[in-house]
Specification:
Layout (H helix, E strand, L loop, with lengths): L7 E3 L8 H16 L7 E4 L1 H10 L2 H9 L9 H16 L5 H12 L7 E6 L16 E5 L2 H13 L4 H10 L9 E6 L5 E6 L10 E8 L3 H4 L6 E6 L5 E5 L15 H18 L3 E6 L6 E7 L11 H5 L5 H28 L7 H29 L1 H14 L17 H17 L2 H13 L6 H11 L2 H17 L13 H13 L14 H12 L4 H46 L2 E2 L9 H8 L7 E2 L21 E4 L1 E4 L2 E9 L13 E4 L15 E4 L7 H9 L3 E3 L4 H4 L5 E5 L4 E4 L4 H5 L2
């Protein structure tokens, strides 16, 4: 070990050392201790230790590769989360160097071994006067033993690369590659009261006020939002309480404040002393009472009138805590989803053809308002609950530390998603065709006869005339399927009205030999992974682990189901608009060959209600997405595009772009599916594909999970994917490295070198 670059420094010695070495949190606490404040004992693991760790384990190069796949400004949040998960896995699967282990052991012997420890971040950029990383980096409480401390240290180091921290650095235009992390290890202080205090009103920046919040028990209960605090406003000059609001806590029937007057005055005096020492308005975490007050942390208030457009609070909402997730699970799964499903059923059951014009206009308005209301709920509540599956990922990886950071995905298999149930029903229809050559030929004839939009009445009549009972039975079964699963919208069009595309997919699936599915990416069953997790966390955390798994599975299921259920509302709006447009065409109030969509709702409602008498003109889109001109020939025979490795494997095939409902029926077995994203409305194409390329990135988007479960290579997060390929291009997809090669792969050149 280099004596000029120590890896461990006692907290009492950290006050005179640069914050670039011990971080802002450690520096300020050491200075407060020197000034006479009571501060928990501890030591600091320096940024030199962090730098040595990432260099010794070649993590620096991997971080550069992960962050260099595409510019940060072009990465979606889900892609950044994927990057963060892979980097976190690197920290978990490498041990601390022996000399650092020895230094940690030595420092621990100087502390009270009977007390649990807090292992906390102390980044050099944390707790600065212009920005605050508070809450973005890990703090791990209740740690005991050298091995557990080392694991906690690696987790804190890895939190430097969390999705929230990376997003915040992007917001501040900070270079992540220059980031460093020190770690503070301290004895935990047992106290019956704890909380936070501000030397001003953090909402307004008013420095005449001080704000104190307190909860029974440790401060983490307040910071993590587990316990509602008592809250006081105090006049800093007179030191008198202006207002007190009691926290709402289950089982708490005491009407008295949980802090007495001497406690409040001691906290107020501490705020004033910290402000005098550092010359900034403090935000302080504390525990204890009156004379036993202990300062846990002090930093400048940055939330009142920040120097920048500080979005740290928004980034913190990207990862709600376990208690919040449980409440969200209850509300989303037990309240909102049933309400959404019931509203869709109600709208679908309405006999709109029997309505008069004014009633139909009201029905259109009802559907439009329902769609807008549920879209807002989707963004405000469904999307935040999607964190449940990300929480499962980090929880599993932290405990099990698997070589494959996406091993946890197998825990999500066999969930009863609406899309999966639909795909199973499609597979049964395809098998019915496969096993009956007469039916297969009849279906082919039907599709050839009706090359445009399929007229089901004519199809039924034709099957009746031929006396083909198997075709008639198939048509009845298919119509039952469409009623149950195709009342959804895709690209502003009802799939219920484009069933010939799905029939062509079924015909294509029927041609595939009925062989067992490809080997899944993980050979471990969900049950086996559960047992691995339970063994890793230990029996005392079994219920906690069970709860995290359950929340993750429900989160994963509902993040797809909610899309389809909201899409059903859109389908019902389009149904009402189409009926209204048909009436107006018949009366001369509407001309043109276009199909109505949501933007036409206002004018159609106005005409149905006997409005201005203006004739509505609907035109087909000037450019249909499915008929875009092929990409210009660049003259390149091979081109590599970098994306996210979403499902392992390598495959070569002809490109097939799917950008609209008209493209669904063109897909053929063995083609490479290239799209913006695999929507829940199009997952039935995945078993036909040899590989998948998506513009949208993220390991936990639907296409990636389905591809991984089926063992199909997938690369997503490929910028401009749909613009860079043309139908028929030869494409090689490398799901191990996240590389897509346009053109015939030149493996022979590699071999001849």
């Amino acid at each position: 070990m280099d004596s000029d670059r120590p890896v461990v420094i006692a907290l009492s010695d950290a006050g005179n050392i640069s914050e670039t070495i011990v971080g802002g949190k450690a520096t300020k606490l050491a200075q407060l201790a020197s000034a006479g404040f009571t501060v928990p004992r501890g030591f600091c693991i320096t940024t030199w230790a962090y730098q040595s760790f990432i260099e010794d384990n070649a993590i620096t190069a991997t971080i550069r590769m992960e962050l260099g796949r595409k510019p940060m400004d072009d990465m979606r949040w889900e892609e950044i989360w994927d990057v963060a998960l892979r980097i976190r896995s690197l920290f978990l699967t490498h041990a601390c160097a022996e000399h650092l282990q020895r230094e940690i052991d030595s420092a621990l012997r100087r502390l009270d071994v009977s007390k649990p420890l807090a292992v906390r971040s102390s980044s050099p950029s944390e707790d600065a006067s212009g920005t605050s990383f508070a809450g973005l980096h890990e703090s791990i409480l209740g740690v005991k033993g050298s091995k557990s401390v080392q694991e906690a240290v690696r987790l804190v180091w890895a939190s430097l690369w969390s999705d929230a921290a990376l997003l915040y650095r992007r917001e501040l235009r900070l270079d992540p590659a220059q980031s460093r992390m020190a770690v503070l290890v301290q004895e935990m202080v047992e106290a019956d009261r704890s909380g936070v205090a501000f030397g001003c009103d953090p909402r307004t920046g008013n420095k005449d006020l001080a704000i104190i919040e307190s909860v029974p028990g440790p401060c983490s209960l307040l910071v993590d939002g587990v316990t509602d605090p008592d809250r006081w406003e105090l006049d800093r000059r007179s030191r008198k309480v202006i207002a007190w609001v009691a926290g709402e806590r289950a089982g708490d029937t005491d009407d008295e404040p949980i802090l007495a007057e001497p406690d409040l005055q001691a906290i107020l005096a501490a705020l004033a002393s910290i402000e005098k020492q550092f010359q900034w308005t403090p935000d302080m975490e504390w525990c204890g009472r009156s004379k036993s007050l202990t300062v846990l942390q002090a930093r400048p208030v940055t939330t009142g009138k920040p120097d920048i457009d500080d979005k740290r609070d928004w980034y913190l909402t990207l990862r709600p805590g376990d208690a919040r997730l449980r409440e969200m699970r209850r509300r989303v799964a037990e309240v909102l989803i049933p309400q959404l499903e019931a509203e869709g059923n109600m709208l679908a059951a309405a006999e709109l053809n029997g309505y008069d014009d004014r009633q139909l206009a009201d029905a259109i308005e009802q559907r439009r308002e329902a769609l807008e209301r549920w879209k807002k709920i989707y963004w405000d509540e469904f999307i935040p609950f999607a964190h449940g599956v990300r929480r499962l990922a980090t929880y599993y990886n932290d405990a099990v530390q698997p070589e494959d950071p996406y091993e946890f995905v197998a825990l999500l298999q066999n969930q009863p998603l609406i899309a999966i149930q639909r795909n199973v029903a499609i597979a049964k229809l395809a098998q019915e065709v496969r096993l009956d050559p007469v039916l297969q030929n009849a279906l082919e004839d039907l599709l050839q006869t009706h090359s445009g939009r399929l007229d089901w009445k004519r199809a039924r009549d034709a099957s009746a005339r031929t006396g083909n009972e198997s075709l008639a039975k198939f048509i009845n079964g298919f119509e039952e399927f469409t009623d149950q699963y195709l009342d959804i919208a895709f690209g502003q069009e009802r799939l219920y009205e484009t069933t010939e595309s799905l029939l062509r997919n079924i015909s294509e699936l029927a041609r595939i030999d009925d062989k067992p599915a490809k080997a899944a990416a993980s050979s471990l069953s969900p049950r086996a992974l559960e047992q691995r997790l339970f063994a890793a966390v230990g029996g005392d955390r079994y219920e906690e682990a069970r709860d995290v798994i359950e929340t993750g599975r429900i989160s994963w299921k509902l993040r797809d189901d909610d899309n389809l259920l909201v899409s059903r509302l859109e389908s019902q709006l389009l149904r009402a608009l189409e009926i209204g447009a048909g009436r107006l065409r018949a009366s001369g109030g509407l001309v043109g060959d276009g199909r109505p969509d949501a933007k036409d709702a206002e004018s159609i409602m106005d005409c149905l209600r006997g409005g201005s008498g203006t004739v509505i003109e609907l035109h087909a889109s000037a450019i249909e997405i499915s008929k875009l001109a092929p990409c210009a020939d660049t003259g390149l025979t091979s081109r590599q595009l970098i994306g996210q490795p979403a499902s392992p494997g390598i495959a070569t095939g002809s490109a097939r772009l799917v950008q609209g409902s008209a493209d669904l029926g063109t897909f053929r077995h063995g083609e490479v599916l290239i799209c913006d994203a695999i929507q829940p409305t199009m997952t039935h194409l995945v078993p036909l594909a040899s590989a998948i390329v998506e513009r949208r990135g993220g390991m936990l988007i639907h296409g990636a999970i389905i591809a991984r479960e089926l063992g199909i290579p997938c690369v997503n997060g490929v910028r401009n994917a749909v613009e860079l390929f043309s139908n028929g291009n030869v494409v090689t997809v490398d799901g191990y490295l996240g590389i897509v090669t346009l053109g015939t792969p030149e493996f022979d050149l590699e071999l001849n070198r």
